[in-house]
User: Which sequence fits this backbone?
């Protein structure tokens, strides 16, 4: 196992403060950050074994690979991407899931009267028309409400966020930023100020067929945006403007995640890729190769740090573990009234009366086998494990249930894998960084994708502690930096 070496550079106190330098202290002009949603470290190894001449293999040849990187818990898309761009976990971002309950919000269209508590969604339901690729971004009439300064106001996703983002910090330095993702709700990366992005590009994934070919077609819009940005230009339907190549840019790929959910892996030894999943991986690899080729054509490849870190994994990898449990089983098992239940391959309970917590946990314990429950996290364990305190934080669930590996709480017949949970296949994600100046290194100790955020700022020559989440959680840069 390799560890970072920290070198203390002493200079005369009258001339400058002490400076810390890591193994790689180069300052880059650009950072390109991509999430290949669903990609596991095991997928990376299987792929380069199949395709040793691939773009991914080439990136790893001059890069640092982190084979035990962990994303947020819960591991849904929004907390997963905020891990990377704030350096903070859900207890400090306040964002727990793409669709979740919050005890301080009021429903869409309300006048904020009565007892607060409402579902807060960061998905296609915020769009003007989710059946269209572009329908004008977020419709303010679809936003939840909150009392702010005594006024009932609609709250955009970026206003929910409690800590700032790397995009805000970089943009505040007079630099340009750009980001692409699968819903207009990814407005959230702008940060609380709303000023983090020079340009956002948010086509709607719900408007496309839920197939690998459909996802590849959708991802192609993102890839074309990346290439446009490297020309200092804007794709059609972008929000904002650019006047040059953005200092920090990136976005996500959806095709691997769709391939995992709809086709998955083969049941033979090592769980090889199905042909559809391999097709999705080939597309991502080709796309990363296109970005590298454009960087080289612009003569900025050596000045760019490329980061690939997945928002989330996908569970299960082994199809033999796959099983479904109807969420109604959980509702019956908990045996007390609920305000809300969020389920995927995890279950987040919000009780109508928090005084029922002891009875609710006892009931769930009695139904562990029937409900395929691996762990029940509540009471002091929520705080001890870093999730927060539901008695003082309106966003924290009262109970978190970790499912047995491979189990999804759903009645859907359209998916064979899911994310959001706390098992290894959910949380263990692909993470590597690449630049021509880096020496191929594999780090096998555990790291967090929260460490991506301070690494981005340090790579660009900015202070990582300008991120509020980094200071709150003492988040370090990735090993090697």
Assistant:
């Amino acid at each position: 196992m390799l560890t970072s070496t920290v070198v203390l550079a002493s200079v005369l106190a009258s001339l400058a403060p002490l400076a810390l330098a890591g193994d790689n202290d180069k300052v880059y002009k650009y950072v390109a950050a991509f999430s290949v949603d669903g990609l596991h470290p095991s997928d990376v190894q299987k792929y380069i074994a199949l395709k040793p001449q691939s773009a991914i293999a080439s990136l790893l040849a001059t890069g640092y690979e982190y084979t035990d990187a962990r994303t947020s818990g819960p591991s849904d898309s929004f907390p997963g991407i905020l891990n990377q761009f704030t350096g903070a976990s859900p207890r400090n971002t306040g964002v727990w899931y793409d669709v979740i309950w919050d005890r301080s919000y009021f429903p869409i269209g309300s006048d904020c009267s009565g007892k607060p508590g409402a579902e807060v969604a960061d998905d296609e339901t915020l769009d003007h028309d989710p059946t269209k690729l572009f329908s004008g971004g977020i419709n303010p009439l679809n936003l939840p409400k909150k009392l702010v300064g005594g006024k009932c106001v609609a709250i955009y996703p970026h206003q929910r966020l409690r800590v700032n983002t790397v995009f805000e910090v970089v943009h505040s330095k007079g630099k340009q930023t750009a980001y692409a993702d699968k819903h207009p709700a990814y407005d959230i990366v702008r940060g609380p100020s709303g000023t983090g992005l020079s340009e956002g590009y948010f086509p709607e994934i719900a408007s496309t067929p839920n197939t690998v070919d459909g996802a590849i077609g959708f991802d192609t819009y993102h890839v074309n945006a990346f290439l446009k940005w490297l020309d200092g230009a804007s794709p059609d339907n972008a929000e904002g403007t650019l006047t040059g190549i953005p200092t920090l840019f990136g976005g996500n790929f959806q095709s691997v995640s769709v391939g995992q959910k709809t086709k998955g892996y083969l049941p033979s030894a090592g769980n090889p890729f199905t042909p559809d999943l391999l097709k999705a991986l080939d597309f991502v690899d080709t796309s990363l190769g296109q970005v590298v080729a454009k960087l080289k054509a612009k003569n900025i490849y050596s000045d760019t740090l490329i980061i690939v870190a997945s928002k989330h994994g996908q569970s299960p990898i082994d199809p033999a573990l796959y099983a479904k449990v109807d969420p109604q089983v959980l509702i019956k098992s908990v045996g007390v009234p609920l305000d809300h239940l969020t389920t995927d391959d995890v279950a987040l309970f919000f009780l109508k009366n928090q005084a029922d917590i002891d009875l609710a946990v006892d009931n769930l314990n009695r139904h562990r086998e029937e409900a395929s429950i691996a762990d029940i996290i509540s009471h002091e364990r929520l705080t001890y494990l870093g999730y927060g305190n539901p008695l003082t934080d309106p966003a924290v669930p009262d109970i978190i249930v970790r499912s047995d590996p491979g189990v999804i709480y759903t009645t859907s017949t359209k998916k064979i894998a899911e994310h959001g949970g706390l098992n290894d296949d959910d949380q263990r994600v692909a993470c590597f960084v690449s630049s021509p100046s880096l020496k191929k290194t594999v780090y096998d100790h555990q790291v967090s994708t929260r460490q991506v955020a301070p690494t981005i700022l340090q790579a660009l020559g900015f202070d990582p502690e300008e991120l509020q989440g980094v200071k709150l959680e003492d988040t370090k840069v990735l090993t090697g930096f």
